[in-house]
Design brief:
alpha+beta; hpI Integrase, Chain A; 4-stranded antiparallel beta sheet; 3-stranded antiparallel beta sheet; about 10% strand; elongated
Length: about 375
Amino acid sequence: MTQQRTFGNIRKLPSGRYQARYTGPGGIHVKADHTFATKIDAEAWLADRRRQIDRNLWDPEAAAQTRPRATFADYSREWLEQRQVAGRPIRERTRSEYRSLLDRLILPAFGHRELTAIRPADVRAWHATTAVGKPTQRAHAYALFMSIMATAVADEYIDANPARIRGASTVKRARDIRPASVTEIAALTEKMPERLQLMVTLASWCAMRFGETVELRRRDIDLEAGVIRIRRAAVRVNGKYVVGQTKSTAGTRDVAIPPHLLPQFREHLVRHAAPGKDGLLFAADNGGHLHPSVHQRAWYTARAAVDREDLRWHDLRHSGAVLAAATGASLAELMARLGHSTPGAAMRYQHAVNGSDRAVAERLSALAL
């Protein structure tokens, strides 16, 4: 939020602090080299600069020294603390991944540099020698660096983003996913331990993410309505589960259960889910969240048994999307079922017609008959 004034202007930052700037004689743009805790402090700073100009005491060289000269390390630290997506703080796992990319790949090259001193040639040289042989990691590091510098442009620390390498923030998928068929899904389910069989169903037929699945509790399963109410997700951060919001706003959703699967849900709730309305559907022996290693061992054994060792767990979600698409589901219906907010900003406003997900679920059951 920027407030226009007769001299200079004051902008309230996302952090709640205030930023002041003005245009001096000769059209020189000057911004305070620090932010202010209150608006009245920012106003006082502007008033002092106005008096200097009125009394011919204003020194353009001294004013130039007040322009922000933040290093990339300092600015990226502030950026990470304040980072939000769609008005929501980023998840702790995402924050941890960003911090890791910064510490390992970005700060060694740019941490000591002032933002204004980083040139496109510096970025190209860094990109050419960073994470060689690891294209996905390099693309993620570049995308993070580009995003930080884009914010620095918006904050007027720099005039232009030096990250200008076309296509550097994306990576071509290294492998094509071969979706699991209905028969293969059934075989994979059978080869899993009984208490984990419903996980295959949730990942495939209901296209749920792993973090959404391991955080499911009894109260999230509405058998009367035939829906799964996805409201939270659990992610591993520094070796521990952290429960928080779903991956995106679109990820908070109700997923209709294909009717032919309702008996499996009932049996799991009776035999395997932890007691109480907050009981986890897939609890560890100690009552906490299922440890990834327990799930991975079971999954690797199951996929080997059906000769689908190429199939990653997340590929089951892809398989579920393909199955739903095979029913004739529209793009909007698929986005609603999978909890996707893309493609494009316009798709955020395209909602599945009420009850259409129920129709998708019923058509999914038809595929199994």
